[in-house]
Amino acid sequence: MTSSLIRPGLTASQGTLERWLTGPRIGPLPSRSSREPPPLLSFEFFPPRSEALEGQLWACIRRLEPLAPRFVSVTYGAGGTTQERTHATVLRIVRETSLVPAAHLTCIGASRAEIIAIARQYWAAGVRHIVALRGDPPPGTRYVPHPEGCAYAADLVALLRGVADFEISVAAYPETHPEAPSPGADLDNLKRKLDAGASRAITQYFFDTAVYLRFLDRCLTAGITAPIVPGIMPVSNYAQAVRFSGLCGASVPAWLGELFEDTENDPETRRMVAAVVAAEQVRLLQANGVDEFHFYTLNRPDLTYAIAHILGVRPISKVG
Ligand code: FAD
Mean pLDDT throughout 264-284? Predict the structure, then answer.
């Protein structure tokens, strides 16, 4: 005798058409008109720690390059630990690709003179865009400003402005930076960074789109007009995303956990769930008028590529 797999607990009304006809109707998300230009994208990479990871990064860069992003950025490790690897990756992007690189630079562990020297090296190498951050101290330690350095990102922006005519992006936090005394103080800080000379903010990632949209409203009310580009993190590893989110103050809604439930040993399903979650998020943002997106690629191209495709971005060799 074969055992059958029957889901227990069906209610009496389940399985009747009536149930489907009584709820409110939800219309489709409006699609982007093919006459509108596709959105602007940027991609974030981290500098590789080993030769194998270097191969992974470069495969990722090569796969995403034809999407012609506005820029690609390279992070600077916590505690300023990857300065040389960040520098080497940014310079290789300049030398070997058609991409416009943006170097992340933090205040951590560097005097103002050292920061100026690094910025000058970047400028001399043709790098024109800096993502200016305070930075995070090594895990388990508290942030202490360098005695001769920049205490906050706003100070770094002002310093860089005096070095050369860099394009400068800064960080923004739709759910408020975890160390900020209040959401209002954090918004004042964002305004200071933009007033000091940054031209765009890129947000910490978020999963609840309504939180980001409310944050945009608060920015507008505070008189901020620079783009607040949403940072999109396709979730390739749910457990890791939960860990990261705990550290950086991004909340993980219960529905996300439910969607990834029981997928630990099922990478195929996990990837499909991840693609649907991110696609839904960017489509909802696009329907709300957002036309610039920053992707935290984690040096993995596939989800980012697929979501860019859904947003209407095509590889340049196929255009026309
Ligand atoms: P700031 O804008 O300086 O703010 C830090 C905190 O201090 C906030 O709570 C702010 O409200 C408060 N504050 C600011 N000014 C004052 C003041 N005058 N008095 C009192 N409080 C003040 N980290 C890395 O180490 N490397 C990276 O490459 C990196 N890339 C990132 C990219 C993006 C898009 C984002 C969103 C974050 C990134 N981070 C990176 C993380 C970032 O460094 C941390 O979130 C860090 O804790 C804060 O950086 P910030 O530039 O936002 O700091």
Answer: 95
CA separation for the pair 37, 226 (Å, rounded):
20
Placement of tokens 């995403």 in the chain: 64
What residues does each domain of the chain span? 37-309
Distance (Å) from CA 18 to ligand 1 centroid: 53
Whether residue 270 has its Cβ less than 6 Å from ligand 1: no
> What distance in angstroms lies between residue 181's CA and the mean position of ligand 1's atoms?
13
> Could you give the angle at the alpha carbon of 111 between the alpha carbons of 110 and 115, nearest 5°?
75
Q: Which of 78, 106, 92, 75 is nearest to 233 (CA)?
A: 75
Q: Which residues pair with 121 in a beta bridge?
A: none
Q: Confirm if 286 and 39 have CB atoms less than 8 A apart.
A: yes
Distance between Cα 200 and ligand 1 center (Å) = 15
Stronger pLDDT, 28 or 165, i.e. the higher one: 165
Q: Indicate if the pLDDT at residue 320 is higher than 50.
A: no
> Helix, strand, or coil here: 170?
strand
Q: Is the CB of 185 inside a 6 Å radius of any atom of ligand 1?
A: yes
Place of tokens 């697929």: 306
Provide the CATH topology of domain 37-309.
TIM Barrel (3.20.20)
